[in-house]
Design a protein that fits this description.
Radius of gyration: 26 Å
Largest sheet: 6 strands, antiparallel
InterPro entries: DUF2993
Shape: elongated
Order of helices and strands: HEHEEEEHEEEEEHEEEE
Keywords: Signal
Protein name: Lipoprotein
Strand order of the largest sheet: 1-2-3-5-13-12
Distance between the termini: 51 Å
Strand content: 35-45%
């Protein structure tokens, strides 16, 4: 009797292991296919020149998909061309369904500093753009003597635009507030060239709004919020 009971327990344990393995394999297979479908749809919408990747982070995402729920999704695309600008885009959506609805999310578009320099215009000759502690830093030369100048600028946003506001200038080894430039003869006329500059971010999908901008090691990062509802272009129906 004891031997039969032990054999039964072993059989049940083996069956449970097989079922768990099959469940795991099915989940991984369906999840992989779902990620491929999402990436393909994002590529068709965004038409990037670089690769597109999609990942599901919700536990048992593959099996959930069979029931119409995808869960949390992250889609990234490199070299997306918009408004004559090249950017890398990452979209994060919560509680995505196979019908394309979401509970909202966020997105980040990172623009390379070469693009930033071109869009903001030259600061004298040989301009450069970079970032420091979240602020934008522009460098170049000004005046007939070609004085080297470094400008630090803060970044602010509205739902449809970001503004670059120069705050300090380093010239001739001195750090001067933009408001005090008139008192520095060598920087005569520079203040007028350092007025705040607003750049419109147009063509955003419905429910998407710009929330923040900051300078990173990779470029100027623009952060967006995504309202709940149908997923914006590039992260639509998963199945």
């Amino acid at each position: 009797m004891t031997s039969n009971r032990g054999r039964t327990i072993r059989l049940l344990a083996a069956a449970a292991c097989v079922l768990a393995a099959l469940t795991c394999a099915t989940d991984l297979l369906v999840e992989h296919r779902t990620e491929e479908r999402i990436a393909a749809r994002a590529a068709s919408r965004l038409k990037p020149h670089g690769p597109v990747h999609a990942s599901l982070s919700t536990p048992l995402a593959g099996l959930r998909t069979l029931g119409g729920e995808v869960g949390d999704v992250e889609v990234s695309a490199a070299d997306v061309h918009r408004q004559h600008t090249v950017m890398d885009v990452t979209v994060r959506l919560r509680d995505v369904t196979t019908d394309g609805d979401t509970a909202g999310g966020s997105a980040t578009a990172t623009v390379g500093y070469d693009q930033v320099t071109r869009r903001l215009g030259a600061l004298g000759d040989g301009p450069t753009a970079g970032g420091q502690d979240g602020d934008l830093v522009l460098g170049g030369t000004v005046g007939r003597l070609g004085l080297p100048v470094t400008v630090r600028a803060g970044l602010s946003t509205t739902p449809g635009a970001f503004t670059v506001t120069p705050t300090t200038v380093n010239v001739l080894g001195r750090s001067v507030a933009v408001a005090d430039l008139d008192a520095l003869p060598a920087a005569s006329g520079l203040r007028d060239r350092l007025k705040p500059r607003t750049v419109a971010v147009t063509g955003l999908p419905h429910g998407v709004a710009l929330t923040a901008a900051h300078a990173t090691a990779d470029g100027l990062a623009l952060d967006f919020s995504i309202a709940a509802g149908p997923a914006p272009d590039g992260a639509g129906k998963a199945a």
